[in-house]
Amino acid sequence: xxxxxxxxxxxxxxxxxxxxxxxxxxxxxxxxxxxxxxxxxxxxxxxxxxxxxxxxxxxxxxxxxxxxxxxxxxxxxxxxxxxxxxxxxxxxxxxxxxxxxxxxxxxxxxxxxxxxxxxxxxxxxxxxxxxxxxxxxxxxxxxxxxxxxxxxxxxxxxxxxxxxxxxxxxxxxxxxxxxxxxxxxxxxxxxxxxxxxxxxxxxxxxxxxxxxxxxxxxxxxxxxxxxxxxxxxxxxxxxxxxxxxxxxxxxxxxxxxxxxxxxxxxxxxxxxxxxxxxxxxxxxxxxxxxxxxxxxxxxxxxxxxxxxxxxxxxxxxxxxxxxxxxxxxxxxxxxxxxxxxxxxxxxxxxxxxxxxxxxxxxxxxxxxxxxxxx
Length: 374
Hints:
78% helix, rod-shaped, mainly alpha, disordered N terminus, 0% strand
C-alpha cells in the first residue's frame, strides 16, 4: 500500500524530498487526509491546481478525486499520523487479539475484552485532544464514531489495513465477531454447469456392445449419434445461457457496487457537511451567547446610567431651586441697595443744604461783626 511505504520511509528516518515540480501525489494525499474537513476542499483544489500547472495531469486528477473525510474519519487519520508509535502498537494489539479470539477460553476472552475497552477509550481521548488542539472539537456522537472505528481496527483485519493507510473517508463499523485475518479466502461459488464429457458414455456403450450379441444397425447407430449431438448442443446452449446470465449478474453487481461506493461518498460528503454545519451552529451559538452577555452588560450599564441621570436631575432640580432662592435674595439685596442709594443721595442733598446754610450763617455773622466794630 503506498501510504504504508511512505510511513515506513518516514519511520526509518529516510527523508522524502519533494519533486522539482511539486510534492509527490502520495505526500499530498497524506497531507489532505490530516487537514481539518472544513479546510479540505480548499486545500485539495490548491494542490490539484498546482499539479495541473506543473504538467502533472494524472496527479491532479488523483488529488481532485480525493473525497473529504468525515470529522470522525479525519480524527482517526490524525491519530494515526500524530501518534505513530502508539498506532503501531495498537495495530499489533489488534493482530494479537484476533489470533487470541480463535483459541482462548471464555475467561481469557473477558480479560481481552476489558483490555480492548481500556485501550480504545484511551486512544479515543487522545484523538479528541488532537482534534481540539487542531481547532475542531469533537461532539459526543463524533467521538462515538471514532471509538467505533478503533474497535473495528482491533476486530477486523481489513479495517486495520484501511486505517493503517491513513486515508479514511468515513468511520468504520466493527464486525459482530473477531476475525483473525489469517483464514484462507473461501472459493467463490460458481453457477456454471459443466457438461459431462461425451466420452463418459462411450465405455457404457462399449459394454453394451460387448454384452449385445448382435451388431446394431447403421440406422440405429446414426440415430444415437444424432441424439447425442442434439443433447450436446442443448448442453452447450444451456451453458452459454448460464454464462451470459452470470456475466449479466456480475455486471449488475459491479454497477451496484459502484453505485454503492458513490452513495457512500455522497453520504460521507453529507456527513462532513452536517458536521461542518454543527460546528458552525456551535460557533454561532457561542457568538449568540457572548452577544447576549454583552447586551445584558450594556443593559446594566444603561440602568446604572439612567439612575445616575435621575440622581443628576434631582441634583439639578435642587440646584435650580437654590438658584431661584439666590435670585430672590439678589433682587431683595438690589432693592435694598437702591433704597440705600436713595437715602444716601437724600442725605447728601441735606448735607449740602446744611453746609450752604452754615456758610450763609457764617457770612451773616461776619458781616454783623464788621458792622459792630465800625
